[in-house]
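Sanity check. The docking grid for zinc ion depends on where the pocket ends up, so I'm generating a full predicted complex first rather than guessing from homology. Inputs follow.
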Amino acid sequence: MKVYISADLEGVCGVVHRDQTGEEGKDYEKVRRWMTAEVNSAIEGALAAGARKILVNDSHGDMRNILPDELHPKALLISGSLKPLSMMEGISREFDCVFFVGYHAAMGTRSAILDHSYYGQVVSEVKVNGRMVGEVGLNALVAGAFGVPVTLVTGDRGAVVQARGLLGPIETVAVKEATTRYAARSIHPSEAHRLIRDAASRAVALSARIKPFRLKPPFRLTMRFINSGMADGAAILPRTKRLDGTTTEYVAKDPIEMFQAMQVWVTLGASTIPIRR
Ligand SMILES: [Zn+2]
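Predicted complex below; grid placement will be based on this.
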């Protein structure tokens, strides 16, 4: 039994503000420990249910958030960026299931903590075959391309509701409930850890029953950018169609090509703003 974990940060228990999500924020060092502890809970649950190999991919911001010396010693860790498969780097057919830990809802979701889709300052909306998706959907499609189902999603209530709507009756843990984009009622971190551990154990057992997330090809990806300059940048990618001032379209034969086109778009779009990614 092999488990792949993609770990984000906005959906970690107690996180509600950008001050907590990056190195320039005053609470960031504390939040790195919270994130690592939630990932450890998922690892402990997976090991207790018989997992033999666990690969963790740090998937937030510059992807150097998880503290290696505090991570469970049985796990392998991918950290840093640039990675061709980004939040799904390292996924392969050898895995039995995927966990998304600390995830958040898609950009534009009401009452969801720090909702965004890959890059909040660049991406306003992403659709695949006409359906709005966020990181849960996009990353689950990548896992599905390798034949691996997502069986656990943890994050705020908005994220887990979206995940169940898209992926079906998988295991979920809502560690907080958003009032607005920047305020939430959270359970205690120790309670979050217990719930994640238990759900992770059940999620390992679920892997035989949950089907990988797949959509019918071709994959029609559309992205609405925050402004038209970002779409100008994205439109440089060959085979990109410009639908209007802020929207681009790419039709891909498989989810991996679609996902990588999206990565290139986001990078090109971000290159038009004078901030560091
Ligand atoms: Zn994210």
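Relevant for the grid: Residues 85 and 260 are 7 Å apart (CA to CA).
Also worth noting: Residues 28-48 form the longest helix (21 residues).
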